[in-house]
Amino acid sequence: MKKTILIFLIYLNCNSMYSQNDSRAINLLNKVSEKIDSSVSFKISFTYTLENINEGINQNSDGSIIIKEDNYLLDFMGIKQLSDANKIYSIVPENEEIIISNIEDEDNNTIKPSKLLVFYRDGYLILWDKKEIIDDNVIQFVKLIPIDSVSDIDYLLLGVNTTTNDIKKLIEIGKNQTKTILSVKSIEYDILIEDDLFVFNKDNYPTYYIESF
Questions:
Q1: Region of residue 176 (left: phi > 0; alpha: psi -120 to 50; beta: else)
Q2: pTM of the entire structure?
Q3: Would you state the pLDDT for residue 18?
Q4: How far apart are CA 144 and CA 21, in angstroms?
Q5: Alpha carbons 133 and 24: distance in angstroms, whole number
Q6: For position 93, what pLDDT does the model report?
């Protein structure tokens, strides 16, 4: 009997959390999702900023990513990371090294590159937040609070261009007060992708050391 009551209380608590989602935020994200779901491939150019006031850290790096389903090609900080939905290939030209890992070994506390445009659809309490003007565009932010209490993330702010319904900025606040900011410079939809873009060919790297996990 006690176990039944406990399960019932947990159920009520979860339903209460979900019921607190702000309808304005949900409607805005639905518009974003509708545009994303109508496309099959994407190219995103971005600036990534890492901030930690306590540690005196403020770093900026530009990058780009091409996404199709669970496949992606990330070009960031001099490293190319290729995923064919089964393996991840991290190609480091500076060291002439390639690290191959299984996709299921990715850190669950981080947003997977292939899910960059859809990560917000599950696992968050969704609230309406601040509004900013960026590059003469109105950017409405939605606050995403992880439902998982053991997450390293305190909350995220997802900024959406209210005219185009494109994601413009993603701000992540860690529980250690580290702030990461992904500022989207451009998003291209339904880009043409070569058949072998997400295929790793070791013959293209004859002098590279390859390490596999």
A1: alpha
A2: 0.84
A3: 43
A4: 10
A5: 19
A6: 96
Amino acid identity, position 99:
I
**Phi then psi for 111, rounded to 5 degrees?**
-80, 120
Angle, vertex CA 117, rays to CA 75 and CA 148, nearest 5: 110
As a whole number of Å, the end-to-end CA separation of the chain is 48
173: which strand partners? 155, 179
Q: What are phi and psi of 26, to 5 degrees?
A: -60, -45
What residues have CB less than 8 Å from 178, skipping those under 6 apart?
50, 51, 52, 57
C-alpha span between 1 and 58 (Å, rounded) = 55
Task: Give the pair of three-digit tokens for residue 200.
Answer: 């790793």
Distance in angstroms (rounded) separating the CA atoms of residues 98 and 42: 25
DSSP 192: -
Where exactly are the structural domains of the chain? 21-212
Q: Which CATH class is domain 21-212?
A: mainly beta
Average pLDDT of the chain is 88
Q: State the sign of the Cα–Cα–Cα–Cα dihedral 8, 14, 18, 20.
A: positive
Give the residue carrying structure tokens 């607190």: 20
Q: Which of 9, 64, 30 is nearest to 182 (CA)?
A: 64
**Which of 38, 41, 44 shows the shortest CA–CA distance to 70?**
41
